[in-house]
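Figure-free illustration: sequence to structure, shown twice.
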Amino acid sequence: MIFETDLFVRDTLRINILKELMAGNISLAVQLDNGAIESYATQIHSDMGRVKVYGNFNMSESTDGEVLTIRPISVDRILKAVPAMSGGISGKKMELVRSSTKQVENTYPFDETFMGLELVPSENKYILRLEYADSVQTEQPVIQEEKPVVQEEKPVIQEEKPVIQEEKPVVQETVKDEKVQKIEEELKKDYTAAQTQLEECKTQLEIDKRVLEYYKDKDVKPVEEIFKEIQQKLDEAEKQIALFIQAQQKKTMEIEGS
């Protein structure tokens, strides 16, 4: 029996098996594409840090030593994970958390019927496939109602065409200057979410810089300049967020004072 759902970049799959992995009650074999099969506990886990960059995935461990989190940071290679567990394992589950809502959308059991998961690239997302044994399946995954991922819609600015009368163009007076209209649209946005996304991008940038330290002297294309541009864009976004938040606060104070 196979269950499928979409998994977008920065969505997370949380599995509360970390304690059992470290104790040896559960083992988890992982593989990228057709590469080497590695044991999470003995070959990927490190006491030096809680976050591991595995291909184009982040694998992070909770501070309480209970939860292993898998999050794609880009759409690239196939990830496979196959468990092996001893008896007496209960209460284990996988939770799909959307980055857009920070809420648990689906919950799946991690028990003796679970045979493995696969993340397969599909355009700008992954297809998450969970396989369960048909013959011994005792409970169905608890699949909560899937909510559509709401993505911010960009305003569509339609170009005004001049009205042609007697072969002479008549220029109509525009209601608002295009630049002023864009500023007003920015003022209407909720910058709380933008601040959160900005902090996540800055955190991810720091994690990825660790990879650069390893590859900077090797025969690969340098990416320091790319990160420099990213940092400049983050700084620009931070300044713009601060500017519009101040404008929103000033406008609110003017309304309250009137």
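We now fold a second protein in the same way, so the two outputs can be compared directly.
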Amino acid sequence: MTIEILCGLYLSLYKIVTEKDAGKLIKIFDEFSEQKETSFNYMQPVLIESELRDMFLQELNKVSFKINDQQYQIVDGIHVYAAGTDFKMVMTSIGAYQGNLNVDNYNEYWNSPHIRSHGNCCSLIANNNLSTATINNICFGFSEFEPGMLLRAGNKDLNSTIYSRDLDVSMRNGTFMLPDDLINSTRGTYNELVYERRDLSNNRPNFKKNPDYLVYFEEFEGENIETLTDEDIQNEKDDEKKKILQDQKRIWEETKKASINFRRTNEDGISVPLPIVKINREECAKSEIKKIQETFSKYLETKDSSLLPSIITQFENNRVGNRKPHDYIRETYFSSSSMQEMLNQIIDTIKAIEDKSLRYANINTMGRLISTERKNFADCMQTEGQTPGFNHKQYLQIFKKMRQLENEGQNR
């Protein structure tokens, strides 16, 4: 089945599922039945669902960070890459809720036959939304997965662990989404992509899917964790920053150890450590807030409502991606006060628009964006440490009132 046919099928199914008029659906079915005899193939829904899963898997594979020919530095014999400020990545935090693992050999730990879970629980992160499970130890990054490996997906914690010993593909509380939609709707602690833990590729070197690289998160711009000494950390006067640096130093050493543990043979037949990809939170935050501010200035000048998602949605993406313990990043670049200041300027700008149709379009767009944010926060449920940048109910009321005034003005 081609991707075009699958996309058409998906859109048709979406229209059917979201159609609220039962009478309309019955009428269509009756008309179809009159033209063609209907019979039910019990295998067809299973095959369609399987192909749809692979369609979403392919889209995730397309955008997942790949090392390829990117530049790198060599640190202690390890190739270290910088993710930069424009990327998407499928990653998982190892032992996120088990504290410090104190693992002797991460390769042996990961490939142990005693870990019987089918599900490899990952998240899709991006430069504009770094929402991850708690990082206590090392993180794995994956460039791509084989067809049939994506089991479940959703913009929140799917609580998949309790079902992971079975080959579970049910969508109890999840939804398959395209990468950008997944990033833009993640408003809890993280989104979840459950992949089959077995490696389904041909000529696989291991029974389980192994990482393509390790992922290491830096907190502060200009940070050089390789040369940061214990004395430097002890001399840090800010206690909160000191703790962050201590944790980062420990995790960096563990990440280097894992790199050595996961040695692999390259194209030249030489055994090399697994690469490390660094993500710098503050660099991403600075890049993102600059883009938002530039778009905001352009909006104030043009009143183009199509620019509003690049302000509201992207601000909230970055805000939730820097929840505690990344409060410094969140409050420095994505504070609720700065969001509310922008919203109030948007309101004043809309009120001053003379063209009625343009003014109405802006009001409607803002109403939809805020409603979507409210829904996404409610859907994600697990929002520990997460707070939106503004009061959804308050601003929905404001734009509802503005819409009512517009409607009253049109009826006069």
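Summary for the second example: The two ends are 55 Å apart (CA to CA).
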